[in-house]
Design goal:
Helices cover 61% and strands 17% of the residues. It comes from Puia dinghuensis.
């Protein structure tokens, strides 16, 4: 009876359907973009860059548990280098041993006191002797607590 009215209703239904499809597609696209950007940010945050002598080195972030063996080896290496590498200067010896004692327990303090009482450090100063330690290898037993090292070194 009124063909134009039916045509307007049909056109309005088509426009409403088209608008609903466009809005749903836009929401899906927005959700996908947000998800991908969060994944990209997560990947970027796992990497850091370190400048070493003018060169950019990439480092990958890891959990603390993965770094324990590396940190323990460096801790042991630093202690032995500071404690046993000595120069014939009392201030240098005191500074190195003090730095080493912060990395050790009471047994290192007792060893230092024993060496000092026996005149070991004064003998190095009087004899003008330089002592340097080179660490060959450090083996760790990670299955026991506290971690016990086995060190191979040359003087």
């Amino acid at each position: 009876m009124f063909p134009k009215t039916r045509n307007i209703e049909t056109s309005f239904r088509h426009i409403r359907l088209f608008t609903a499809v466009v809005v749903a597609g836009s929401m899906l696209l927005c959700g996908f973009v947000v998800w991908q950007s969060l994944r990209a940010v997560g990947r970027v945050q796992d990497r850091i860059y370190i400048l070493e002598s003018g060169k950019a080195l990439e480092a990958i972030a890891a959990s603390r548990r993965e770094n324990i063996p590396v940190e323990a080896r460096d801790h042991i290496r630093s202690f032995h280098t500071d404690f046993f590498s000595l120069d014939p200067d009392e201030k240098v010896i005191t500074a190195n041993v003090t730095r080493a004692l912060y990395l050790a327990d009471g047994s290192a303090r007792r060893m230092y006191e024993s060496l000092r009482e026996n005149g070991y450090y004064s003998g190095i100063i009087a004899g003008n002797i330089s002592q340097e330690i080179t660490i060959d290898s450090i083996a760790l037993d990670m299955h026991s607590y506290p971690i016990s090292p086995a060190i191979s070194a040359r003087r």
